[in-house]
Specification:
The protein is 38% helix and 13% strand. By secondary structure, it is an alpha+beta fold. The longest helix has 20 residues, at 65-84.
Protein backbone atom coordinates (compact mmCIF):
# COMPACT_ATOMS: atom_id res chain seq x y z
CA UNK A 1 0.00 0.00 0.00
CA UNK A 2 1.31 3.43 -0.92
CA UNK A 3 2.18 5.81 1.89
CA UNK A 4 0.21 9.05 2.06
CA UNK A 5 2.68 11.86 1.61
CA UNK A 6 0.37 14.86 1.93
CA UNK A 7 -0.06 16.34 5.42
CA UNK A 8 -3.42 15.38 6.91
CA UNK A 9 -4.38 19.07 7.12
CA UNK A 10 -4.15 19.25 3.31
CA UNK A 11 -6.02 16.03 2.62
CA UNK A 12 -9.10 16.58 4.80
CA UNK A 13 -10.22 19.88 3.22
CA UNK A 14 -9.90 18.26 -0.22
CA UNK A 15 -12.13 15.38 0.86
CA UNK A 16 -14.71 17.75 2.31
CA UNK A 17 -14.62 19.89 -0.81
CA UNK A 18 -15.45 16.83 -2.92
CA UNK A 19 -18.39 16.11 -0.62
CA UNK A 20 -19.79 19.58 -1.24
CA UNK A 21 -18.99 19.79 -4.95
CA UNK A 22 -20.13 16.33 -6.09
CA UNK A 23 -23.33 16.41 -8.13
CA UNK A 24 -25.50 13.81 -9.83
CA UNK A 25 -24.67 14.63 -13.43
CA UNK A 26 -27.05 13.59 -16.22
CA UNK A 27 -25.29 14.93 -19.30
CA UNK A 28 -21.91 13.61 -20.44
CA UNK A 29 -19.36 14.44 -23.10
CA UNK A 30 -18.67 11.90 -25.83
CA UNK A 31 -15.28 11.16 -24.33
CA UNK A 32 -13.95 7.80 -23.20
CA UNK A 33 -12.62 7.26 -19.67
CA UNK A 34 -9.21 5.61 -19.35
CA UNK A 35 -9.21 2.11 -17.87
CA UNK A 36 -6.73 3.31 -15.24
CA UNK A 37 -9.21 5.90 -13.97
CA UNK A 38 -12.03 3.34 -13.86
CA UNK A 39 -9.81 1.07 -11.78
CA UNK A 40 -9.00 3.90 -9.38
CA UNK A 41 -12.70 4.61 -8.92
CA UNK A 42 -13.41 0.94 -8.21
CA UNK A 43 -10.45 0.73 -5.83
CA UNK A 44 -11.97 3.59 -3.83
CA UNK A 45 -15.22 1.63 -3.65
CA UNK A 46 -13.34 -1.35 -2.26
CA UNK A 47 -12.18 0.81 0.65
CA UNK A 48 -15.74 1.29 1.93
CA UNK A 49 -16.69 -0.33 5.25
CA UNK A 50 -18.66 -3.57 5.21
CA UNK A 51 -20.46 -5.67 7.78
CA UNK A 52 -17.99 -8.16 9.27
CA UNK A 53 -15.54 -7.11 6.52
CA UNK A 54 -17.20 -9.44 4.02
CA UNK A 55 -16.62 -7.06 1.10
CA UNK A 56 -19.56 -8.69 -0.74
CA UNK A 57 -19.51 -6.55 -3.87
CA UNK A 58 -18.61 -7.26 -7.47
CA UNK A 59 -18.43 -4.80 -10.34
CA UNK A 60 -19.68 -5.40 -13.88
CA UNK A 61 -18.47 -2.66 -16.21
CA UNK A 62 -19.79 -1.56 -19.58
CA UNK A 63 -17.59 0.74 -21.69
CA UNK A 64 -18.69 0.03 -25.28
CA UNK A 65 -21.20 2.69 -26.46
CA UNK A 66 -23.31 0.21 -28.44
CA UNK A 67 -23.52 -2.16 -25.48
CA UNK A 68 -24.55 0.67 -23.15
CA UNK A 69 -27.27 1.76 -25.60
CA UNK A 70 -28.52 -1.81 -25.93
CA UNK A 71 -28.92 -2.20 -22.17
CA UNK A 72 -30.52 1.23 -21.86
CA UNK A 73 -33.15 0.45 -24.50
CA UNK A 74 -33.85 -2.94 -22.97
CA UNK A 75 -34.34 -1.44 -19.51
CA UNK A 76 -36.69 1.23 -20.90
CA UNK A 77 -38.83 -1.41 -22.65
CA UNK A 78 -38.91 -3.61 -19.56
CA UNK A 79 -39.93 -0.73 -17.29
CA UNK A 80 -42.63 0.32 -19.75
CA UNK A 81 -44.16 -3.17 -19.72
CA UNK A 82 -44.02 -3.40 -15.92
CA UNK A 83 -45.65 0.00 -15.43
CA UNK A 84 -48.37 -0.70 -17.98
CA UNK A 85 -49.34 -3.73 -15.92
CA UNK A 86 -49.82 -1.48 -12.89
CA UNK A 87 -52.80 0.25 -14.50
CA UNK A 88 -53.46 4.03 -14.43
CA UNK A 89 -50.90 4.69 -11.68
CA UNK A 90 -48.23 2.85 -13.63
CA UNK A 91 -49.10 4.66 -16.85
CA UNK A 92 -48.80 8.00 -15.04
CA UNK A 93 -45.36 7.04 -13.69
CA UNK A 94 -44.33 5.88 -17.15
CA UNK A 95 -45.33 9.21 -18.69
CA UNK A 96 -43.43 11.22 -16.10
CA UNK A 97 -40.37 8.99 -16.38
CA UNK A 98 -40.41 9.16 -20.17
CA UNK A 99 -40.52 12.94 -20.17
CA UNK A 100 -37.74 13.10 -17.59
CA UNK A 101 -35.44 10.78 -19.51
CA UNK A 102 -36.26 12.35 -22.86
CA UNK A 103 -35.18 15.68 -21.42
CA UNK A 104 -31.72 14.19 -20.93
CA UNK A 105 -31.91 11.88 -23.93
CA UNK A 106 -32.59 12.25 -27.63
CA UNK A 107 -35.83 12.69 -29.56
CA UNK A 108 -34.38 10.44 -32.25
CA UNK A 109 -33.00 7.66 -30.07
CA UNK A 110 -35.46 7.93 -27.18
CA UNK A 111 -34.86 7.92 -23.42
CA UNK A 112 -31.41 6.97 -22.16
CA UNK A 113 -31.38 5.68 -18.59
CA UNK A 114 -27.58 6.04 -18.53
CA UNK A 115 -27.61 9.70 -19.72
CA UNK A 116 -25.02 9.12 -22.43
CA UNK A 117 -22.29 8.28 -19.92
CA UNK A 118 -19.29 6.37 -21.34
CA UNK A 119 -19.02 4.02 -18.33
CA UNK A 120 -21.76 2.05 -16.58
CA UNK A 121 -20.90 -0.01 -13.51
CA UNK A 122 -23.41 -2.49 -12.09
CA UNK A 123 -22.66 -3.17 -8.41
CA UNK A 124 -23.77 -6.57 -7.20
CA UNK A 125 -23.65 -8.71 -4.09
CA UNK A 126 -25.18 -11.98 -3.00
CA UNK A 127 -28.91 -11.75 -2.33
CA UNK A 128 -28.20 -13.89 0.73
CA UNK A 129 -26.09 -11.18 2.39
CA UNK A 130 -28.42 -9.33 4.83
CA UNK A 131 -26.30 -6.15 4.92
CA UNK A 132 -25.39 -6.00 1.23
CA UNK A 133 -27.76 -3.09 0.56
CA UNK A 134 -25.85 -0.89 3.01
CA UNK A 135 -22.44 -2.17 1.97
CA UNK A 136 -22.99 -1.49 -1.72
CA UNK A 137 -24.45 1.96 -0.99
CA UNK A 138 -21.34 3.00 0.95
CA UNK A 139 -19.19 1.51 -1.80
CA UNK A 140 -20.99 3.59 -4.43
CA UNK A 141 -20.56 6.77 -2.40
CA UNK A 142 -16.82 6.15 -2.17
CA UNK A 143 -16.70 5.64 -5.92
CA UNK A 144 -18.57 8.87 -6.66
CA UNK A 145 -16.29 10.90 -4.42
CA UNK A 146 -13.24 9.31 -6.01
CA UNK A 147 -14.60 10.09 -9.46
CA UNK A 148 -14.99 13.73 -8.47
CA UNK A 149 -11.42 13.85 -7.18
CA UNK A 150 -10.20 12.42 -10.50
CA UNK A 151 -11.98 15.07 -12.57
CA UNK A 152 -14.95 12.85 -13.45
CA UNK A 153 -18.66 13.11 -12.75
CA UNK A 154 -21.14 10.45 -11.76
CA UNK A 155 -24.74 9.55 -11.05
CA UNK A 156 -26.18 6.65 -9.00
CA UNK A 157 -29.06 4.81 -10.63
CA UNK A 158 -31.47 2.72 -8.62
CA UNK A 159 -33.17 1.91 -11.92
CA UNK A 160 -30.09 -0.14 -12.70
CA UNK A 161 -31.68 -2.97 -10.72
CA UNK A 162 -34.24 -3.35 -13.48
CA UNK A 163 -31.59 -4.83 -15.76
CA UNK A 164 -32.31 -8.16 -14.04
CA UNK A 165 -35.74 -8.25 -15.71
CA UNK A 166 -34.50 -7.57 -19.22
CA UNK A 167 -34.14 -10.31 -21.84
CA UNK A 168 -30.45 -9.45 -22.27
CA UNK A 169 -29.50 -9.67 -18.58
CA UNK A 170 -27.56 -12.85 -19.33
CA UNK A 171 -25.03 -10.78 -21.29
CA UNK A 172 -23.69 -9.32 -18.04
CA UNK A 173 -22.67 -12.85 -16.94
CA UNK A 174 -23.81 -12.23 -13.37
CA UNK A 175 -24.11 -15.61 -11.65
CA UNK A 176 -26.72 -16.67 -9.09
CA UNK A 177 -27.14 -15.75 -6.22
CA UNK A 178 -25.74 -12.31 -7.05
CA UNK A 179 -28.20 -9.48 -7.59
CA UNK A 180 -27.79 -5.93 -8.87
CA UNK A 181 -28.25 -3.36 -6.12
CA UNK A 182 -27.63 -0.28 -8.23
CA UNK A 183 -25.79 1.04 -11.25
CA UNK A 184 -23.31 3.88 -11.30
CA UNK A 185 -22.46 5.93 -14.36
CA UNK A 186 -19.25 7.92 -14.64
CA UNK A 187 -17.72 10.15 -17.27
CA UNK A 188 -16.81 13.71 -18.12
CA UNK A 189 -19.83 15.82 -17.31
CA UNK A 190 -21.41 18.19 -19.81
CA UNK A 191 -23.34 20.16 -17.18
CA UNK A 192 -22.74 21.73 -13.78
CA UNK A 193 -25.92 21.39 -11.74
CA UNK A 194 -26.46 23.71 -8.80
CA UNK A 195 -26.62 22.19 -5.33
CA UNK A 196 -30.07 21.75 -3.85
CA UNK A 197 -30.72 23.48 -0.56
CA UNK A 198 -30.06 21.12 2.33
CA UNK A 199 -32.33 20.85 5.35
CA UNK A 200 -30.70 21.97 8.60
CA UNK A 201 -33.46 21.23 11.11
CA UNK A 202 -32.97 17.48 11.24
CA UNK A 203 -30.39 17.11 14.03
CA UNK A 204 -31.28 16.24 17.62
CA UNK A 205 -28.60 16.39 20.32
CA UNK A 206 -30.18 13.89 22.65
CA UNK A 207 -28.01 14.73 25.66
CA UNK A 208 -29.01 18.39 25.43
CA UNK A 209 -32.66 17.55 25.97
CA UNK A 210 -34.19 18.12 29.35
CA UNK A 211 -35.15 14.88 31.11
CA UNK A 212 -38.84 14.07 30.97
CA UNK A 213 -40.72 14.84 34.21
Amino acid sequence: METITKPVAEIIPEVIRNLYERRSVRRYLDRAVARELIEQVIDAGRMAPTAMNKQPWKFYVLTEPESIKEFSKSIVKTLAKEMMHEGPAGIAKLAVGALYNLYYGSLLEGPDVFYGAPVVIFITASKDEPWACYDTSMCAQNMMLAAKALGLDSCPLGVGKSVEHTPIYYKLRIPYPEKVFLALVIGYGDEKPDAYKRMKDNVVYVNDLQPAE
